[in-house]
Amino acid sequence: MNARRGRIIALSTGVLGIAVLATAGFALRERTCEQYWLWKLELGDESARWFAAQRLGEMRSSRAVPGLLKWVAGSKRKPEESGWYVW
Question: pTM of whole model > 0.70?
Fold first, then answer.
C-alpha cells in the first residue's frame, strides 16, 4: 500500500511540475522572443539586425530603442541606401 501511495505522489508531483513549466513557458514567450531579437540586434550581421529591428518594431518593444539608436548611429550606409525614409 505504501509503495503505491509513493508512486501516486511521485507521479502527481511530476505532472504538477510539467504543468508549472508549461505555464511559465507560455507566460514568458513574449519576453523570450523579445530578448532573442534584442540579442540579434546587438550581435547579428547587417541582415539579422535589419530583421530584428523589424520584429522589435512589430512587437512595439520600448526596450529596443537604445539598441536601435546605437545601430542607426553606427551605420556606415547613408539612410537612402539602407531603406530608411528620408523626409
Answer: no
